[in-house]
Every structure is written in structure tokens, then in C-alpha cells.
Task: structure prediction
Amino acid sequence: MIQVFKKAGFMRSKIGERRPIDGSRDRFCVVCEKMYLAYSRVEISFLCPDCCTPKLRKEQNRYIAEMKRARQHNLPTTLVFKQWLRVLEYFNWSCAYCKEGNLDVMDHVISIKDNGGTEALNVVPCCYSCNNKDNGMISKEKRVSLDVINAVREELARLFAGHASPC
Ligand SMILES: [Zn+2]
Ligand SMILES: [Zn+2]
Result:
């Protein structure tokens, strides 16, 4: 019975019950590093069901959106999801610039408009008041001093010293 469905590329034991597609079982969770069963070959997922909390799921979606945005502008997209989580941990999930604001957006230190890619050394958590979503970097430069921006860049460089490239 199962063999027949495997041939078709997927298994469905009951209507509505999703099962892992054959061959999509070798995914590793970026958080716990355990192997888990992916439900679909095409679904982008870096988190096992145990680690896929609403908080991390939100970050995964944010990461995917910002990778897409840079790709649309033909800019580098070398950030891996695990690096984004590392950046968030480093800045305590708070705004990298004011250190107090919430994580509202993934900010490109060098904005996409200025050809900054979605890369480990160029993204930080940022609050709405340090990053004006509508005007991007120009507005942020008015709100955050260049000294603060440079300090954040140095922090990123230290964090990824020697291993900023995707693994
Ligand atoms: Zn996990
Ligand atoms: Zn802030």
C-alpha cells in the first residue's frame, strides 16, 4: 500500500494528514542540530517541530523575506539563518543601535538602497525609532549617529571574526 503512494512521490495515510515526502528526511534543525522530518521538499524550513516556536518561526520568515529582498536587487545573500540567530543572541534580541528598543526589523547596516546585501556582517536587529521603514537608511542616519553605526559594524566584525562566510 505504502509502496504505491511512494511511487507517486508522497504519502498520505488519511485525508488531511500530512506525511514527510520520501527523500526529504535528512534535514537538520539549526537550533538543536537534530535530524527532523520535513513535510515538504519545497517548504523552506530550518527548524524542527520542537524548535519551531512562534518567536523563531517569525525570525525564519523575516530571514526569508530579507533574503528575497536582496536577491530582487541582485545583492549578495550569503547570510545563513543560524548567523541571524547568532546576531540576535549577541544583541539580546534588542535594537543594536539604541540597545533598548525592540527587535522590530532586520536592519541592513549598509542599506539595500546603497547596495548592502543580506550578509552576516550587514544585518542587525533594529527598532522602529532607529529605523524608519519608509525612508530607510537616510532617515536612520538622521536618527542614529555615524559613530553608533560604526560601533555596531565593529561589533559585527568581532562576532564573526574569521568565519562570516556561510558554512
Ligand atoms: Zn530543533
Ligand atoms: Zn533602536
